[in-house]
Amino acid sequence: MKNFLVLLKLLGFGFFMMMIFAVASNVVPQAIGEPPPVIDLRSIDTVDKMVELGGEIFGSEAEPGRGKCPMCHRRIGGRAPVLDGVTNRAATRIKDPRYKGHAKTGIEYIEESEECPSCFVVAGFGKPGTNDAVSPMPVTVNPPIYLSAIERDSVIAFFQDRDGNDVTVKPITDPEKDLRWDKEKYKYSFKGLKPKG
Predict the structure, then answer these.
(1) Tell me: the pLDDT tens digits for 41-85?
(2) How many CB atoms sit inside 10 A of residue 135's CB?
(3) Rounded to two decimals, what is the model's pTM?
(4) β partners of residue 196
(5) CB atoms within 10 A of CB 175
(6) Residue 29, preceding bond cis, omega within 30 degrees?
(7) CB-based burial of residue 49 (10 Å sphere; 0-12 exposed, 13-18 middle, 19+ buried)?
(8) Cα dist. 4→9, 49, 101, 122 in Å?
């Protein structure tokens, strides 16, 4: 009889603990992961639409977009340089002696940075132990971000607009040409860049 009471207490305690965990798991807010909305990239046919799409991809520090840029490029405590004014600074980056890329203009430098983050690493933001020669930034045309050419250009248009500059990136004019990157399942490479040297 004594063993039966001990077993009953253990079962009661186990049931009580399961109920506590069940209630607690329903009190904690649940994150519902939903796929991003499907955007017909052929509809991005004006500069204003590019700026809007670029802003959605970039997002904000409070709510990063699909590009996840503000997760590292934060104003306070960021693991990467702040991108405010990036279109104004870009032309000076290609003149830096540490620059190892192929860009000739500031906009080409920003495009290149998406595919070859290590072509120029801002001092203090490289991977530890690499003397700022290797960037921790992912290549945004590869997993997990997968930006297409028009999406990358839209982010650049967003930067230009946000920095108070004229938007020089042009919307798509030939969907078959401009969207080839998506059709090839992200195998398209912007010049196939690797750092010089």
Answers:
(1) 778 889 999 999 999 999 888 888 888 898 899 888 788 999 999
(2) 21
(3) 0.71
(4) none
(5) 17
(6) no
(7) middle
(8) 9, 72, 77, 70
